[in-house]
Amino acid sequence: MTLKEEIFSLKNEVIELRRDFHMHPELGFDLPRTSKKVSDYLKSLGLEVQEGIGKSGVVGLLEGKKDGETIMLRADMDALPIEEKNSIPYKSKIKGKMHACGHDGHTAMLLVAAKILSSHKDEINGNVKFVFEPSEEKNPGGAILMIEDGVMENPHVDRAYGLHLGNMYPAGTIGICAGNFSAEPDQFGLRIKGKGGHGGYPHLSIDPIIIASEIVLGLQTIVSREMDPLDPVVITVGKIQSGDVFNVIPEYAEITGTVRTLNRETAMVVAEKIKRVSQNIGAAFRGEVEMIDYIFGYPPVVNDPIETELIKNIAKAVIGEDNIIEITPSMVGEDMSYFLEKAPGAFYWLGSQNVEKGLDRPHHSPDFNFDEDVLTMGVEMHVRTSLCTACGKSPG
Asked: What is the average pLDDT score of the chain?
């Protein structure tokens, strides 16, 4: 069989693995079933396996025939605290938990890639590390803890690669760019103090909900009127919490939101502007506003230009040149950035949207699902990336 045929012969296996992970989602670092299944699978391939890296991460090491570079392939394992609404045979069996971002697919693809590469061990000069990360969805994610536990050493990782299923791109495409690939995801919180009172006597109170509403609108003027339009910034308020009774003006309100930028310097400027704008709006309405937290998220993912070209060349052999999309940076966050700070590499989207099948819902939605036909493409990308970098073969 050709390599493509060999991978395609395992299509049912990669789908079955994905569906098993999908039915049994686990959150954050609490991944006992997922981690064990990953570890057991890697051990069955005869790989050297480390468990408990970064609390609950798993690392498998494939040692090649001769000395050479060490390549890292990474997948994330955690799900989200979302109640699934899909009517599918493999719907989540865990109430309030769901794989709504594609991490179940990432894990399945990397496991099957490890299986294929294990059978090609004699063709590899160097090593391949298969890194399964916990808690990518929460800050701090698992990447930084895995690095602290030595995942980039023993042996030292020379290059790092990863992919993410993307329902914003058609199935069978790959989206990639050199340089900034994704944003820094920060979090902020504001606490507004007013003066509580009767809903029928608003003039005797200071309404924190009114102040909160004005702040939500005012924060958008930071983006539209205070920042360079060529330096992208997103400010999103995701939560406003205040009051308990319909006819009472409450004493306090709280706002929580996120800031997305492409560099830490811009993020620091935005943080100060959020504080100034919100406090001045509060004062204008006789209230008080306190910034109760500003948490700087993990850094942007930055793709190495040379490694980006390598991925493009490999993609030509997997999906064809016409299906490679040169994208602009995304304002989502990804802690793959920490790995790419330690070793050159690239991160890219594997398009998974299929409108005809109704598989076009956005990530993190309760009815998210993706086209499983792309899973073998992801496996092939991992396999060819490893073979090209670890033994010098051409992408084809």
From this structure: 96
How far are the Cα atoms of 20, 108, 166, 379 from residue 13, in angstroms, in the given order? Answer: 11, 9, 21, 12
> Are the C-beta atoms of 90 and 19 separated by less than 8 Å?
yes
372 is catalytic: yes
Tokens read off for 84: 């699934």
Q: What are the pLDDT digits (tens) for 66-93?
A: 889 999 999 999 999 999 999 999 999 9
Q: pLDDT at residue 390 above 70?
A: no
C-alpha 207/C-alpha 230 separation (Å) is 37
Burial 230-266 (b: 16+ CB within 10 A, else e): eebbebebeebebbeeeeebbbbbbbebbbbbbeeeb
Is 288 one of the catalytic residues? Answer: no
Residue with tokens 């935005």: 270
Return the DSSP state at 378: H
Answer for the pair 264, 296: CB distance below 8 angstroms, yes or no. yes
Instruction: Select which of 136, 137, 307, 372 is catalytic.
Output: 372
Most distant pair of Cα atoms in the chain: their distance: 81
Q: Which of 298, 334, 338, 380 is catalytic?
A: 298
What is the C-alpha separation between 138 and 29, in angstroms, rounded? 9
Distance CA 336, CA 271 (A): 24
Residue 335 in tokens:
């802690």
Count of CB atoms situated within 10 Å of the CB of 45: 18
Domains and CATH numbers, the chain: 3-181+300-391 (3.40.630.10), 184-295 (3.30.70.360)
